[in-house]
Amino acid sequence: MNMIIGKKENNYEIGEFLSESGYISVIPNYHVHPNATSIDTMVDDIHHAIHWTYKNIHKYGGDKKRMTLSSHSAGSHLSILTLIKSSLGMKNLGKPLKKLPNFKDVLLLNGLYVVGDIEKSIELFSQYGMMNYVETFKDLFLNKTDYNPQDILAERKTKSIKSLGTEHITFLECTEDTNVKPGSADPMIKQVKRTVKKISTGYYLAEGDHDTINHGIRDGKEEAKKIFINLIKKYNKL
User: Fold this and answer.
1) Where is the BD-FAE-like domain (predicted)?
2) With a threshold of 0.90, does the pTM exceed it?
């Protein structure tokens, strides 16, 4: 969620957006296509950012034992994928991904947790002359595996996962979102509940479109800020 202007250190933005509520925020960058031609590269970036935050957040007044992970859209997909792969010790860039520090909660905004039929998508993009999307889908998804968090959980046995590295996950969607329609998170929520032994989940439906909360926060919209902060406070009280 690129919405905070703050001090920059090692490619991370240390922001003041949540400071009035007693929280500190860290906004990491990660490689995107064409600078990344693998989802594994993006997962690796997020994995490193989380470890960096855990080791350094005390320098900015934060508490490493009370961290919330939040992300938007593709970031939500990548964040939960990172948690799943690290919790299960799945290979990423050829090596098992090490476990992450535990979060108090995770807040996922407007995420899509399954990328659909890749070959069909490439065909449609080609028909409309959207060649940048064609190349992106070919590089990131074609003949690749383990990039859909929902599918990874679907292959696991019931209550076979001890933890996903968080006590709670909230899935937020918006009423007028045409990119990720309301209800898209339902199958993901079902798989989390089915496979993970100890976790709670929540769902919040906000008024607006795909970018209402994310862009609203960036643009100083009070209602967007209120929804976001209240959801963090609810599951990560100071």
Assistant:
1) 9-85
2) yes
